[in-house]
C-alpha cells in the first residue's frame, strides 16, 4: 500500500482506515497490509491490528479472504434474477417460471379471507398442520417447528441474522444461487465456496469449508440453481457424515423447487445435527409475488427465528398464508403443478438435444434453467448473442471463486416455441464457431 496508516489502538487504526476508504484513497478490492507487517510498522501488538481489521469487517468495509488477505469490500450489488428492464433483446436469462403456469388466485382468494387481529398466532394453524406432513420427511425426530416467512431469501436472512455475527463465515455452493450470494454479502458475512459437481455439493469442498471455520452451511438438495444438480442418495449420505462432526453448525437446506422437482429429496440434515432448517418457497409454482416460504427447523432455531417475526409488524399476512394453503390443497392446482413440472423438464431436455446436435453437449439437470458449458469464452459468446438479438445470463454472475473463468451460460428456455428454440441453438453454435470453439470430440461447434 502507498498510504501511511496511523494509529496506536485498534479503534484509532480502524478509524484511520475507514476515513481513507470513505475518501477513496482505498478503493474496492485494494489489499490492506498483512497483520504482522502493519503491526511492525506501527509498533503495536499484532492482536491490536487483528482487532482493528475485525471492526472494519463487522462494519462491512473490508472482507477477510484467508490466504488472500484482507481487502476493501466491493459495495456493488450482486446480479439479481428477473427480467432486464428496458431491453429490446429476447431475454433468455430471467430465471422466471412461466406466468401461464402460475395458478389464478381469484377463486382461491375468495375462499381464504377472514379478519385477523393482533395477538393471533403468527403461523396460521391450518397451514402449520398441513405443512408438518409436507415439510418433515427425512428430518431428525423431535420437536420440529414450522415457521412462515416472506420467501426463501427472507428466511435465510433471518436465520443467519439470528445465529451469526457480521464477518462470520458461511459455506455456499460454487456456483451459487444469486439471492443466497446477495443475502450473504449484504449481511456482512464471508462466503466460503464449496464446489458443485453433477451430484451436488462436494464432500471434500464441504470438509475444507468446515475446517476453515464456517458457522453455517447453505445447501440446495435438488434443482441447484444454476447447474440443475441434485444430490444423490450416496452424496447426501457422504455430506451427512462430514457434517456429523460439526453438530452445532447451522445447516440450511433450501429445497426451492420442491413440488416441481423430478427427483427425490435426499437430505443433508442428519439425526445428530443440532441446528438446522429446511426451507420450501412457493414462488416457483405459485408465483414469486405470493412472497411466502415455509421453514421446518429444530426448536432452538425456530425460537430464534420467532423473535424476528413479531405479530403485527414482521409476520407474514394470514391472507397469504391461507391463500397458499387453499391452492396447495386444491387437487386441480396440484395437477397443474405436476403438468408444469413435466413442461419445464421436457422443454429443457429438448433444447439440450438441439445444442447437442450442434456439437455443444449439455447435461440436463432439474429446475427452470439449463447450465450450458461452452468451448469458447462465455463473455465473448454472450456479446455475440446480444448482436444476434438475445440477452443471456453469463456463468460468471454465479461464480464465487474469483479465479474461475465461468465459461457457462445459464439459459431460461422453457417458454420458447420450437422455432425460437432452434434459432437460439443456431445462434449459440454460430457464436461458438466464430471463436474457434470445439466440443469435447474436437468437432467445430455448430
Itemize the secondary structure elements and their pairings:
Elements lengths: L9 H14 L11 H8 L3 H13 L3 E3 L5 E3 L17 E2 L14 H5 L14 H11 L9 E5 L2 H12 L5 E6 L3 H9 L3 E8 L2 E2 L1 H9 L4 E4 L13 H11 L6 E5 L21 E6 L1 H4 L6 E5 L1 H9 L10 H11 L2 H27 L12 E4 L4 H10 L2 E2 L1 E2 L13 E4 L6 H17 L12
Parallel strand pairs: 3-13, 5-6, 5-8, 8-9, 9-10
Antiparallel strand pairs: 1-2, 4-11, 6-7, 10-11, 12-15, 14-15
Helix pairs in contact: 1-3, 2-3, 6-7, 6-11, 8-9, 14-15
CATH class of the largest domain, please? Alpha Beta
CATH fold-level assignment of the largest domain: Aspartate Aminotransferase, domain 2
SSE run: HHHEEEHHEHEHEEHEHEEHEHHHEHEEEH
Largest sheet, in brief, is:
8 strands, mixed
User: Mind telling me which CATH architecture of the largest domain this is?
Assistant: 3-Layer(aba) Sandwich
Instruction: List the strand order in the largest sheet.
Output: 4-11-10-9-8-5-6-7
How much β-strand is present in the residues? 5-15%
Relative helix content: 25-40%
What would you call the shape?
globular
Q: How many distinct beta strands?
A: 15
**Total number of distinct structural domains:** 3
> Any idea what the radius of gyration is?
24 Å
CATH superfamily of the largest domain, by name, is Type I PLP-dependent aspartate aminotransferase-like (Major domain)
Distance between the termini: 49 Å
Amino acid at each position: 500500500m502507498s498510504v501511511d496508516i496511523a494509529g496506536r489502538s485498534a479503534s484509532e487504526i480502524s478509524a484511520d482506515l475507514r476515513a481513507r476508504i470513505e475518501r477513496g484513497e482505498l478503493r474496492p478490492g485494494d489489499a490492506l497490509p498483512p497483520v504482522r507487517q502493519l503491526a511492525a510498522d506501527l509498533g503495536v501488538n499484532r492482536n491490536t491490528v487483528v482487532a482493528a481489521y475485525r471492526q472494519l469487517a463487522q462494519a462491512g468495509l473490508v472482507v477477510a479472504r484467508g490466504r488472500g488477505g484482507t481487502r476493501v469490500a466491493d459495495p456493488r450489488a450482486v446480479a439479481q434474477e428477473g427480467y432486464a428492464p428496458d431491453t429490446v433483446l429476447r431475454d433468455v436469462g430471467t430465471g422466471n417460471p412461466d406466468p401461464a403456469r402460475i395458478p389464478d388466485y381469484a377463486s382461491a382468494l375468495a375462499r381464504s379471507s377472514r379478519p385477523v387481529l393482533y395477538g393471533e398466532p403468527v403461523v396460521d394453524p391450518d397451514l402449520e398442520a398441513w405443512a408438518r406432513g409436507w415439510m418433515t420427511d427425512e428430518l431428525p425426530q423431535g420437536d420440529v417447528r414450522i415457521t412462515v416467512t416472506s420467501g426463501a431469501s427472507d428466511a435465510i436472512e433471518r436465520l443467519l441474522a439470528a445465529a451469526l455475527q457480521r464477518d462470520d463465515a458461511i459455506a455456499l455452493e460454487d456456483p451459487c444461487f444469486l439471492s443466497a450470494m446477495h443475502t450473504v454479502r449484504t449481511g456482512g458475512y464471508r462466503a466460503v465456496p464449496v464446489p458443485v459437481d453433477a451430484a451436488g455439493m462436494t464432500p471434500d469442498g464441504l470438509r475444507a469449508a468446515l475446517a476453515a471455520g464456517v458457522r453455517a452451511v447453505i445447501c440446495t438438495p435438488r434443482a441447484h440453481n444454476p447447474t440443475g444438480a441434485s444430490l444423490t442418495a450416496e452424496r447426501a449420505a457422504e455430506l451427512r457424515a462430514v457434517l456429523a462432526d460439526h453438530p452445532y453448525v447451522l445447516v440450511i437446506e433450501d429445497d426451492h423447487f420442491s413440488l416441481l422437482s423430478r427427483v427425490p429429496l435426499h437430505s443433508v440434515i442428519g439425526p445428530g445435527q443440532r441446528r438446522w432448517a429446511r426451507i420450501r418457497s412457493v414462488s416457483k409454482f405459485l408465483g414469486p409475488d405470493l412472497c411466502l416460504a415455509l421453514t421446518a427447523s429444530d426448536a432452538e432455531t425456530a425460537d430464534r427465528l420467532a423473535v424476528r417475526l413479531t405479530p403485527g409488524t414482521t409476520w407474514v399476512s394470514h391472507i397469504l398464508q391461507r391463500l397458499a394453503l387453499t391452492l396447495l390443497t386444491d387437487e386441480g392446482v396440484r395437477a397443474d403443478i405436476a403438468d408444469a413440472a413435466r413442461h419445464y423438464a421436457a422443454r429443457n431436455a429438448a433444447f439440450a438435444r438441439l445444442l447437442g446436435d450442434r456439437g455443444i453437449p449439455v447435461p440436463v439437470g432439474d429446475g427452470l434453467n439449463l447450465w450450458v458449458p461452452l468451448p469458447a469464452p462465455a463473455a465473448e459468446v454472450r456479446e455475440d448473442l446480444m448482436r444476434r438479438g438475445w440477452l443471456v445470463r453469463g456463468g460468471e454472475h454465479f461464480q464465487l471463486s474469483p479465479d474461475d473463468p465461468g465459461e457457462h451460460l445459464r439459459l431460461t428456455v422453457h417458454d420458447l416455441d420450437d422455432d425460437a428454440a432452434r434459432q437460439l441453438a443456431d445462434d449459440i453454435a454460430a457464436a461458438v464457431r466464430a471463436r474457434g470453439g470445439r466440443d469435447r470430440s474436437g468437432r467445430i461447434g455448430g
